[in-house]
Design brief:
Elements: H1 15-23, H2 39-50, H3 60-68, H4 73-82, H5 86-89, H6 100-156, H7 217-238, H8 245-254, H9 259-275, H10 289-292, H11 300-331, H12 340-351, E1 353-354, E2 357-358, E3 365-366, E4 369-370, H13 371-380, H14 384-393, H15 395-401, H16 405-414, H17 421-435, H18 444-454, H19 470-480, H20 497-512, H21 521-527, H22 531-539, H23 543-555, E5 569-571, E6 575-577, H24 579-587, H25 595-603, H26 611-628, H27 631-635, E7 636-638, E8 644-646, H28 648-651, H29 661-678, H30 682-691, H31 695-712, H32 724-738, H33 740-743, H34 748-768, H35 772-782, H36 792-802, H37 807-810, H38 813-833, H39 839-857, H40 864-873
Antiparallel strand pairs: 1-2, 3-4, 5-6, 7-8
Keywords: Membrane, mRNA transport, Nuclear pore complex, Nucleus, Protein transport, Translocation, Transport
Protein name: Nuclear pore protein
InterPro entries: Nucleoporin_int_Nup93/Nic96
Length: 876
């Protein structure tokens, strides 16, 4: 029996051949995904394999099997040792056969590793988010705390100086008053040119919104005329003299040709009559303030004012109608002197007749005279006595038809257009009996007369078959209005001025301005005492007229004003006009071109002497000063001898409730200076402090400017003397030193600081000119850095003195040290070139050494680059 294998022996295959064959295997299996392990996972897996201590198992049968196949284990072992397996370790064959168990193990390991990576990534993301949130928190808190810290920082850097060092009582740190804000949003300027009123917009039909008065000659001329009137008004107020403002404004509008301007002129005449400007003895600023601005509609003073409005407006309409009758009679060509009855009769002939017939039905005629129409229009003209004479003239006729009416009319005239309870009851009963159901058979004028004098059936206020003008309609309602004992009247008989005002507003502008040739809405508002509504309406028609109407009303105390809100007219308990913003909006169009005029207008904000309005006026004037920068014109100036020359605002300080010069300086100039300082406008700030006579603050700011100039320019920069701040400092020091009164108001430290800074500037000039010996002498004379004779104690004293120096000087000490070291080096090199090594050289070396010692003591108080530069310049 043969002992060999049943299979023929296979040819020997080397391991290299196997590897080459493996490279030809598929790189990827469609069933098995690639497992990519990270370095940490590979390291962990290798440790696990390294730690496997399973017992060795010898498979002898495999040895014989391989040997029978032509594979020698010794040869394979030697070949394995010769192979660099590193290149294959990182990329195992993806197509190698894996058992399900090994596949599951690899997937678990991958998932575990991925989980660890996700956890680490989440931790890193949380840390980044926390850091970002912390940065945001810090930024927000720094921003919130900045305003509170600002004054502390200002004090620390000596921007606001304590005057205790000057030998006078210490003064509290000055801070700018809160800026004016309106509409609930800070920073909204009262002088803004943008119309921010939410309740009204100027009409697009206006030729100009006074954005630029120079665009139209007519507008400019009108603007200048109003401006002159405002100037005269302030002059009279300052001299405590009355000023007929309504008459003046009325005259300005008298010659305007357009319909709307004539309408405004007629409105001015209503106010002229109401405030009685024809009687100079009755003129008085804020004349009606106590009556009109009480704030409570049920207050006794408010009721008294409404009665005054009703009486004066009714009388005005009656006088106006009488003037119309006079003009009408003149136009008829008659040369006789007529009575009032004759004037009305002629008027009726033309008004109520057409083609010789009366065009009003059911007229009651006595001897061809429409008796009730005659009485009605006599009442309309305010001719009560003439109406009584008519009833007496036709006594017999009235006795037959209306025997009680003459009695009613006399009682109406005698008792100031009112009846007692008994008489009122009688006339009411007769009215109800005759006119319960008005029809075409009744004389409409008889119905109107009874209704007016008896105030009958007030639930119906219409007058059928009578053609009424708007003026007639207003007069009738004013005749029906009653303010006395209104609570005692039955509800259906109550009719007050407030009720009439509501009716007018409910009808709206269109009803009263239906005729484009005869708009009446503004006049109706003024006749019924709705002054805020009048300003509000007129703003949409003509801003210029609206502003001056508001000024005139405020002058007499006929305007309720407010200092806040987004609307021109706010409606809370009472209607109020945002007077300050109205003036500011108007002034914004010419504040730059005509600052003098702008100031005169802004002063008028304080017409209402409340603290709110005065503060608004002061604040907006400060804003004008900063916007226009017309400091001399508005605030005045200090001449070379220290004498004060007042400006426009100081001349008007009494109108702003600034009783003395100190109040003016604090409220206007000083507050404007603080505001300018906050905005970084240092030159404006210096001038404003100069005008407010805060001379110590002037020098402090000049020192700050000089210090910044020296610190921000290169050491070799020469033309410092040409700089504006240097010239300003030099001039101010000369003026202050000549005037002992001013000099006494400046602290010694401020003066010394300014002098030293000017000396440093001269040193820089000498250094640039390479006048090294002269420059070094100037530095030594200044006494801010050690000299050759300074011992260690002196140097320590100078270093301690460094902490007490003004910041404007201390931050320029490093530059002074560099200049000193550079000069000593140059001078020493010159000495060495000359071959001399004398006392002068040693003197220079000693200065250099002392400067380095001084700089060393001031460690961390100067930039690192300075120390590097000083070491490089050290002389050997």
């Amino acid at each position: 029996m043969p002992t060999g294998s049943a299979f023929p022996p296979a040819p020997k295959a080397s391991l290299k051949e196997l590897l080459e064959s493996a490279k030809n295997l598929p790189k990827r299996s469609s069933d098995i995904g690639t497992v990519n392990l990270g370095p940490n996972e590979i390291r962990r897996k290798a440790n696990e394999l390294r730690g496997d201590k399973s017992e060795d198992r010898h498979y002898t049968k495999a040895h014989y099997l391989l040997a029978g196949s032509g594979i020698t284990l010794e040869e394979i072992e030697s070949e394995i040792q010769s192979i660099n397996v590193r290149q294959f370790a990182a990329s195992p064959a993806p197509g190698a056969n894996q058992t399900p168990l090994s596949q599951q193990s690899d997937v678990d390991n991958y998932i575990s590793a991925k989980k660890d990576e996700n956890i680490l990534a989440a931790i890193e993301q949380s840390l980044a988010t926390a850091a970002k949130d912390f940065d945001m928190f810090v930024n927000q808190n720094i921003t919130m705390d900045w305003k509170q810290r600002k004054e502390a920082l200002r004090e620390s850097f000596s921007v606001i100086l304590n005057r205790g060092s000057s030998g006078r009582p210490s003064k509290q740190i000055k801070t700018a008053e809160d800026p004016v804000s309106w509409g609930g949003v800070s920073g909204r300027s009262l002088l803004s040119s943008k119309n921010d009123f939410a309740d009204v917009k100027p009409s697009s039909a206006q030729p100009s919104r006074v954005v630029n008065p120079t665009t139209s000659f007519a507008i400019r001329q009108r603007f200048e005329t109003f401006a002159q009137a405002v100037y005269d008004l302030n002059e009279s107020r300052q001299q405590r003299k009355p000023y007929p403002i309504c008459t003046v404004f009325s005259d300005i509008t008298k010659f305007d040709q357009n319909v709307k301007s004539r309408h405004v002129h007629d409105s001015w005449k209503i106010l002229v009559d109401f405030v009685e400007e024809s009687n100079s003895a009755g003129l008085k600023e804020r004349k009606y303030e106590e009556l009109y601005c009480s704030g409570d509609s049920l207050d006794f003073q408010a009721i008294a004012f409404r009665k005054l409005v009703v009486s004066k407006s009714r009388t005005y309409l009656e006088d106006q109608f009488m003037d119309y009758l006079n003009d009408f009679f003149v136009q008829t060509g008659s040369t006789s002197v007529p009575t009032n009855v004759e004037k009305v009769s002629v008027f009726l002939e033309h008004k109520l007749k057409r083609g010789g017939d009366w065009n009003v039905p059911n007229l009651s005629l006595i001897n061809g005279v429409p008796i009730w129409a005659l009485i009605f229009y006599l009442l309309r003209a305010g001719c009560l006595e003439d109406a009584i004479q008519v009833t007496e003239k036709y006594h017999d006729s009235f006795k037959k038809l209306e025997k009680s009416f003459p009695v009613y009319l006399k009682s109406y005239h005698k008792n100031d257009r009112q009846f007692g309870n008994e008489m009122q009851g009688r006339i009411t009963n007769e009215f109800n009996q005759y006119f319960k159901h008005i029809n075409r058979e009744a004389d409409p004028f008889r119905y109107a007369v009874y209704k007016i004098i008896g105030r009958c059936d007030l639930s119906k206020k219409s007058f059928p078959y009578i053609s009424l003008s708007i003026e007639d309609w207003v007069w009738i309602h004013l005749s029906l209005v009653r303010e006395n004992d209104i609570e005692d009247d039955p509800i259906h008989e109550r009719y007050s001025l407030i009720d009439f005002q509501r009716s007018i507003l409910s009808f709206g502008v269109e009803r009263f301005n239906a005729s484009s040739n005869h708009p009446m809405y503004l006049q109706v508002l003024l006749l019924t005492g709705q002054y805020e509504e009048a300003v509000h309406y007129l703003f949409s028609v003509n801003e210029m007229d609206s502003v001056h109407l508001a000024i005139a009303l405020s002058y007499y105390g006929l305007l309720n004003v407010t200092g806040k809100g987004n609307e021109l007219m706010s409606v809370e308990k009472t209607k109020k006009i945002f007077f300050a913003r109205l003036i500011g909006l108007y002034v914004s169009s010419f504040k730059i071109s005509d600052p003098r005029v702008a100031a005169e207008y802004l002063i008028l904000i304080s017409l209402n002497q409340s603290d709110e309005q005065v503060n608004l006026s002061l604040s907006v004037i400060r804003e004008l000063v900063l916007d226009t920068r017309e400091f001399v014109l508005l605030l005045g100036k200090i001449d070379k001898d220290g004498n004060r020359i007042p400006g426009i605002i100081e001349e008007r300080k009494s109108l702003l409730k600034l009783d003395d010069e100190a109040s003016f300086l604090h409220k206007i100039s000083e507050q404007a200076a603080l505001k300018a300082e906050e905005e970084g406008r240092y030159y404006d700030c210096i001038l404003l402090y100069q005008l407010s006579e805060e001379y110590d603050m002037v020098i402090s700011l000049v020192n700050k400017l000089l210090g910044e100039l020296l610190n921000t320019t290169e050491i070799s920069y020469a033309p410092l003397l040409e700089d504006q701040s240097v010239a300003l400092a030099t001039k101010l020091m000369k003026i202050y030193n000549r005037n002992s009164q001013i000099s006494d108001k400046v602290s010694l430290k401020s003066r010394e600081t300014c002098s030293k800074l000017l000396e440093i500037i001269k040193i820089r000039e000498q250094y640039e000119a390479k006048a090294y010996s002269k420059c070094l002498k100037s530095i030594m004379d200044l006494g801010l850095v050690p000299n050759a004779g300074s011992d260690l104690e002196t140097i320590r004293f100078l270093s301690q003195q460094f902490n007490t120096l003004d910041e404007s000087i201390s931050k320029n000490i490093p530059g002074l040290l560099i200049i000193t070291m550079t000069i000593t080096r140059h001078l020493l090199l010159d000495e060495m070139k000359s071959g001399l090594n004398n006392d002068k050289s040693e003197h220079l070396r000693q200065i250099s050494r002392n400067c380095l010692v001084y700089a060393g003591i001031l460690q961390f108080k100067m930039p690192r680059e300075v120390y590097t530069t000083l070491v490089n310049l050290e002389c050997v």
